[in-house]
Amino acid sequence: MVDNKLTGSSGEHYVCYALARQGWAASLTRDGLQRTDILAVNTDSRRVVEIQVKSAGPVRTPFWMLGTRGLVPAESDHEWYVFAALTPTVNQAPTCFVVPRDHVAAATWITHQDWLTDRTVEVGGRNAPVSQARVSVRAWKRYESRWDLLEQSTDQVPVLLPPEMRELAQEDRVGLPKDHPWNVALPTW
């Protein structure tokens, strides 16, 4: 039986390690801040970031349960997610995906709405609420090991989501969450 608390803790500690190896002084918030597991400051640039870590256990195709929390847009230009895909052994480092919070909110909604309204499935065949939304590693692939992005304001980071997600965001059956900043102007990617 997998202990979800240990899986989450493993990911958080690994992300702190990875940040420290790249010149970031990282500190776990220990449930002290909502939406933030790690606060980090770059020792050279003095840039500060807030990071929410989501960990997935060692499976062939990792996915992360995001639910409604994954839909919450950023309140500042330094809010990030790091998705950690843990490995079966301690001899292999986890794979991490560094993603701005607004990109996560868009991907969570698009993925869930596309799944929910899939035209190849009988009407009523899928009815899980967005609180059960999960996103697979496929959405984050282009964010893999992109620790360099942390030096930018999140609103300046290029959107690296799969191109078909942009098309889905423009469809009436999918779209974007109502409070998402991309409703004003959908970025290109």
What does this molecule look like?
This protein is α+β, with helices and mostly antiparallel strands and 189 residues long. 22% of the residues lie in helices and 24% in strands. The protein is built from 3 helices and 7 strands. The strands form 2 sheets. The chain has a 5-stranded mixed sheet with strand order 1-2-3-5-6. A two-stranded antiparallel sheet has the order 4-7. A hairpin with a 2-residue loop joins strand 1 (24-33) and strand 2 (36-42). The N and C termini lie far apart (40 Å).
Q: How would a crystallographer describe the biggest sheet?
A: 5 strands, mixed
Secondary structure tally: strands: 7
> Could you tell me the mean pLDDT?
94
- Globular, elongated, flat, extended or rod-shaped: what is the shape? globular
Question: What is the correct CATH architecture?
Answer: 3-Layer(aba) Sandwich
Strand order of the largest sheet: 1-2-3-5-6
Rg, please? 17 Å
CATH class: Alpha Beta
